[in-house]
Amino acid sequence: MREPVRVAITGAAGQIGYSLLFRLASGEVFGADTPVELNLVELPAAAKVAEGTAMELEDCAFKTLKKITIHDTPEKGFEGVNWALLVGSKPRGPGMERNDLIRDNGHIFVGQGKALARAASNVNVVVVGNPCNTNALIAQHNCRDIAPTRFTAMTMLDENRAKYQLAKKAGVDVREVQNLAIWGNHSSTMVPDFENATIGGRRVTDVITDRAWLEGEFFTTVQKRGAAIIAARGKSSAASAAGACIDQIKNLLRKTPAGEWFSMAVASDGNAYDVPAGLIFSFPVRSLGDGKGYEIVKDVKLSDFAKKKIGETTKELLEEREVVKNMLVK
Questions:
Q1: Residues 242-258: pLDDT tens digits?
Q2: Which residue among the candidates 71, 107, 141, 186 is catalytic per the annotation?
Q3: What is the pLDDT of residues 73-96, one digit of tens each?
Q4: What is the enclosing helix (H) or strand (E) of 178?
Q5: Has this prediction a pTM greater than 0.90?
Q6: Active-site residue, 107 included
């Protein structure tokens, strides 16, 4: 057996956390020969629920699950971890403006960034809690001892949603859809890039010739899928969000095959696609296969349509950064 992988999950008693934990413990993600230690991080009021989840994990008798601990502070929960999955955040309530949500959650991620700085060094941070791009930016700015490249936000959920919509329209298996990049913010301004994606090795626009559908219904379906799920089930995405988080970790743990990419929100280096340096922005990326290294794909050709849409999502992220500027450590 290898050295254990230590994983902290905030909001572990919530729906996404519940959907994540069993897959992390099972050996699916890190391998059948890698022990996993899980740190369940929750608010004190939810600690009892986390205890129940821990009991269920024990009752599964996973061969790779070495240890489970429950923590009611991030300082303790993040101590010595290799992965920090920041799932817990305040949901948007009725009548709440997005900027109010950003400010409210910002304080949570200020604290979590500071806790990471004190407790962990060799750590990869995946932010799932929304608004995830700006939450990741806040955590990263409050944790300057850890490289900005270690902070990512999850847009794999949007990529998965977009792939399914294209596959359904084309009447093919979803595995046929490749290189579907999500650009920008995990919000209603995100850009699902159908122009550079392929279906069965052919350009999407050669397979699906209905350009009006691609620019219209396809775009809005992907952009507003989260709201549609809430309207249908009365709760936000849980299993699909957890699955996307698992997909992102797996993508980072394997070297991306030549000519392929996946979507992940990362710190812009300012040298690609006119995205200002420092923004946590979703790009097509390739993993180097060591679990932490990646590169932004910088040779993707963009149409005027795509450039306009990317400009809009960039503007939104700059506006969000302005909202939280007092939370960002210089």
A1: 999 999 999 999 999 99
A2: 186
A3: 999 999 999 999 999 988 766 666
A4: strand 177-178
A5: yes
A6: no
